[in-house]
Amino acid sequence: MSDKTSNTPEPAGTGPEALLTFGWEEWVSLPDLGLPAIRAKVDTGARTSALHAADIEVFGSASKPRVRFAVYPIPGREDLMIPCSAPIVDRRDVTSSNGETESRYVIASKLNVGGHAWDIEITLTDRGTMSNRMLLGRQALKDHVNIVPSERFHQPELDFDVYHTPKVRSIAPNRALRVAVLSRENNYSTNRLVEEGEKRGHSVEVIDTTRCYMAINAMAPEVYYDGKRLPRYDAVIPRIGASITPYGTAIVRQFESIGTFVVNGSAGITSSRDKLHAHQILARHRIGMPPTAFANSPKDTSNLIGLVGTAPLIVKLLESTQGKGVVLAETKKAAESVIDAFRGLKANFLVQDFVKEAAGEDIRCLVVNGKVVASMKRTGSEGDFRSNLHRGGTAQKVRISKEERETAARAARVFGLGFAGVDMLRSNSGPKVLEVNSSPGLEGIEIASGKNIAGLLYDAIEEKVRPTPVPRRKKQPKAN
């Protein structure tokens, strides 16, 4: 007795020789591609099955190439598009009924008809002029189907209405995505985003933001890189450094104008990076933060300090990152000296109250898609009030309160950031937000929390780029 089993399920209550009956047209589904209903023409004169596909693009490694493409399952509905991807099985020449030969990519998929399913090969081609978006050739029908060529719809009929309901999101498979990471650095965070994405079967490309350039026009906005137009990405993960914020956010805006899903939008990156603007946004939404003051004239130094409170005070450059340009002034005299020095350098800065009870510690919360997914407590090195890990601070996992969790989530939300690091101090009057970071590092928080933060980000991306229901078209009233 052989221990091999067939990949083809047997119809319920029948033997292995039982066949389905097909007419010349049948409703089928391709669940592997996220196509729950498609009308197929049955053609035994054709050897190979074919699927109408647009925007066909190869991606992935040379050893395991994949193809991505768009399917418009309902003829005449160009507003309803299902994005698909699959491994490439083969590439072969196919001759059509009119004698034209075309080189096509071949993929494999499960064909589902009336509760019966089996694997078939499908070629990808343009069938835009055809009333049936799929053709079933004899290879797919062999050993499974009896044909009645004069009839149609012997199998249960499906309905295109499924594409107009939320169900279309739940049946979409985890297709391979093409993702761009906008980053100039070869660091832990960038490498983790590439590693995690490729582990999930996605194609992840690291793009140096400063080497991108744009074609800005109304009809066909594009982004170019090293002389070539960049492909259409499913998602872009911006990792924009502080030194290139204006140009980096311009590139992000360009992707937004193309219609690409961007994890953090240009407006959120810009406003969170501008510390003065960021504090104004936090204050407007009544999110707790240390008392903060800003002035331009040197005549206002004393009043500026008085608005914040008594010494010690924090004087912080607006362009500071990773704890650089942040000074603790122990006395009012010291604060005046630091402010005068910054003004002499024509630098913009904030003056902030020093939260003594924080004792050189802060909380970093990682927010993904509006939810706090991890948190850590950062402690400054001995003698340093700054807790930044880049300055020798240490990190450990911490349990946060409900109020801290809600504050962090709100802070990320008011900036419209899908992926953010929110830094807070624990004070006697509740959590105080110090900063909302649109490019948070992954190394410290992944090690401290033991969580796969990169994976949680890809979970959110995969959810966001799933197909969405398309509204039904209103029926036109009949003419009198």
From TrEMBL:
Coiled-coil parts of chain: none
GO CC terms in record: cytoplasm; ribosome
Keyword set includes RNA-binding: no
Keyword presence, Protein biosynthesis: yes
Domain ATP-grasp, residue spans: 279-462
Top-level taxon in the UniProt lineage: Bacteria
A UniProt-annotated Pfam family: RimK
Cofactors named for this entry: Mn(2+); Mg(2+)
GO molecular function: ATP binding; metal ion binding; ribosomal S6-glutamic acid ligase activity
Keywords, ordered alphabetically: ATP-binding, Ligase, Magnesium, Manganese, Metal-binding, Nucleotide-binding, Protein biosynthesis, Ribonucleoprotein, Ribosomal protein
Record-level GO BP terms: SOS response; translation
NCBIfam families in the record: PRK10446.1, rimK_fam
Similarity comment: family membership: In the C-terminal section; belongs to the RimK family.
Protein name: Probable alpha-L-glutamate ligase
Native organism taxonomy: Bacteria, Pseudomonadati, Pseudomonadota, Alphaproteobacteria, Rhodobacterales
Gene encoding the protein: rimK
